[in-house]
User: Fold these one by one.
Assistant:
Number 1:
Amino acid sequence: MKNAPIGIFDSGVGGLTVVRAIHDLLPQEDLIYVGDTARFPYGNKSPATIIRYAQQITEFLQKQGVKLVVVACNTATVHGLAALREQWALPVLGVVQPGVDAALEATRSGRVGIIGTVGTIQSKAYQQALLQARPELHITASATPLLVSLVEEDWLQHAATQLILEEYLAPHRAAQVDTLVLGCTHYPLLKGLIGQMLGPEVALVDSAENMARAVAERLRQDDLGHSNSKRVGTIQIYASDLSTQFANLAHRFLGREAGTIEKVVLTD
Amino acid sequence: MKNAPIGIFDSGVGGLTVVRAIHDLLPQEDLIYVGDTARFPYGNKSPATIIRYAQQITEFLQKQGVKLVVVACNTATVHGLAALREQWALPVLGVVQPGVDAALEATRSGRVGIIGTVGTIQSKAYQQALLQARPELHITASATPLLVSLVEEDWLQHAATQLILEEYLAPHRAAQVDTLVLGCTHYPLLKGLIGQMLGPEVALVDSAENMARAVAERLRQDDLGHSNSKRVGTIQIYASDLSTQFANLAHRFLGREAGTIEKVVLTD
């Protein structure tokens, strides 16, 4: 089992920022990624639908013999993590808790901001997890739904992106947060611009990096790390719908060649 | 058959601009709408997948006894219209041809612009249909993928929307088009702002309005109009995934109360 791959999934291309971070931190591990591009995005779908999709993908990953599953999608984590853990014996890690832990570690003033999709913010998953750990926190949460499209358009430094971010970040500036959780796997690509805009006094919590750290920690705890720490693992990408746009984005999100992307049929 | 409803579908909420236009022009007709919200958006999916989805929805509409099907989705029209017409005996109308006809009628200079999703523009459906009718036309086509999100966010007059449109409209200004085809069912909501920006000398071709005129014409030709022209027809909306966001958008796109939205299960 130590030498089995790690399975990672998201509704689309976003989770490849998590794949990149895991590969950077744990290069010896083989990674299998599923992007459910045929049914992207999950953000505006109902919890029951999202749970069904997450179960189908986990079943596929389990058949590929993975040793651990990473839900690299905030919406699927919020709605599906408990159901997946109930159904499967494999360790299943979600993207919310690592972000929460990192925010708790980063904040000095106790004033924490969260940005994410409508679904993630409405679910209150980050807010509740933060307040459960530290009830005295002052939390500012806001949905920032245009950011996913802007990232996919590659408008990472565009004047319009800056204008939109000015508006989206205004409540966080007003609340004087010292920590901002980027609660969506697309947002690491905007970390540069957000960092320039908020300045070094605001810590940015990047879901992808913290997810990778949580995976490393879990492999260590369960003694599931690859037995050969010198090797360089493979990255196999599956998508439920293939398009040239996905291939282009995959390259950009992964920060390297994506290799051959295979189609996976997820039956409803 | 004359008193049967008209079926209309789209990948999401956008086609409700077409429902609104048909209801305004033909208030006596009963309308059944299907928004395939569980699988929205179609724009970045492969042709084979889109054809499969369009067939499933048309089958559902056919079971509801509709007399005519309107494909109120540019992507589904581009990839699915031929397949639907082959499979079903019902008249099936797509959203591309009415827009093309209206553009041909509107242009004086023969310089025509088209904006739409990546899928619609890459398919070249509008470009080819225009050039087939008039090979001497000078056509400028550009993908404007951020507009759907901006419309769904209700940022119809926002400074960021204006900045993004300035960039998107620049090639059309440079080409001195006198007619711009709004090749996406979301864009009628931006007609006001685009009209302000381009001025009255550029004619805007609105997919929804022209689609409604094409439906009226076809009903007349086939003698399929409702026998009681004094009645006010019903609008029944189905969605493959229900969410509060869809209900809110439906209200806005339809321009009136959306009534009870029913769930439809579309099996893959």
Number 2:
Amino acid sequence: MVDATPPPADAAIVLIGNELLSGKIRDENAYYLAGRLRALGVTLRRVAVVPDEEAAIIDEVRRCASAYTYVFTSGGVGPTHDDITLPSIARAFELPLIVDPSLEAPLRAHFGARMTPGHLRMATLPAGTELVRGDDFWWPAMVLGNVHILPGIPQIFRANFETLAPRFQGAPFFLASVYLDADEGSIAAALEALERDHGVAVGSYPRIDVQADHRVRVTIEARDGATVERATERLLSSLGTGARVVRVDTAAPASCPDQG
Amino acid sequence: MVDATPPPADAAIVLIGNELLSGKIRDENAYYLAGRLRALGVTLRRVAVVPDEEAAIIDEVRRCASAYTYVFTSGGVGPTHDDITLPSIARAFELPLIVDPSLEAPLRAHFGARMTPGHLRMATLPAGTELVRGDDFWWPAMVLGNVHILPGIPQIFRANFETLAPRFQGAPFFLASVYLDADEGSIAAALEALERDHGVAVGSYPRIDVQADHRVRVTIEARDGATVERATERLLSSLGTGARVVRVDTAAPASCPDQG
């Protein structure tokens, strides 16, 4: 690549919630977002799960906001005492909290006399937060600088992210997978040479469960499809007799989900 | 509690692997361990997913080892170029790497002339690493100070953890769940009072999917079962007419998995 394109975008996800740390709830949002960012060409470089505690949220959000192009938070934006994401992010960036009229009004219209301080908390945002509305839910995605504040409920999380997704389109990754009946150690040198000589990212994922038709999946990735194709051919031609090729998924844009 | 017991143990998990960040593989190990630590009475306070990069591994392992009672790492202990957990942890604690004879010998016996430098890397550990062997797999759990180094393959991860599990037994948590047909905001004040007055941890988890028979699950937790029972009775008696109780799971030791 000879053009002066900016460096590819990267991202971090901060999952906020005791329920994930206590094993009550299995994460769906980071897994969903990992696949979607991959498909969009954004490199996810960190995921952190932190408890519903102000100091932990402030520390992680600050660190990620300064280190990565995009930060996504999940959880802690509801009406109860453990929903402290919005005030914590306000403190992280030393911003005042303000009640947003466009959130307060529909809450008051819906709850009327039953409106509680908890409900009002949902409309109380760090000053300068942008609200981005989609078609599926009335709850908007919230954007403050490079921090994207999403709710933990998976259905709304996904809808809000998809509303924002056009902002993150980058150069997609191309991915090829070679499934082998081979000992991983016996191909380690070949994989290292591949990464070194072809400028691709090489992954090696052993399986020991009997359901799998292969013992190792080798992945080859780059932002340029032809590079991935060349590296895949090199790998296939360099394997010794100890490695049997079970099947090959040739270079294609990385999709979501991207499992095998 | 009037006895001078030490503070309850806490823990962090560091998942190491590009495959988790690129969405290729969905985490199973942190989810498994979250539930198991819960059942053992250990408070999980942080999960971080980092790429196969030395600086990221060093930074996260160092930080967690100094902040929490136990650290568990998952992944990066195989024979390929991206398996850098062991040398990175050695650098994190400024320890030399040594080849462990009790790991090298079975590798040499198995691979013979096909033994590669990659295989030898699997036997190359930070000096002082304790190896703990179980019955299910020949690969041992590795312990260096408070850092427990486990492989990413879920079957071996779980077997190695279970070999170590008797070391972590603490005071278990008791958990009650109250499933409500209620608006979360309308009960927010009651939940906050519960946490404040009864010394319990209260969680509130809304559901919007049609399969759920409830709109909010309220969880009440403490290390003392009678405290959880009292708080549950208080909650049930304090709910207003806007909240209908769908069902109640009374106080019981938190188990694994702990979903609902």
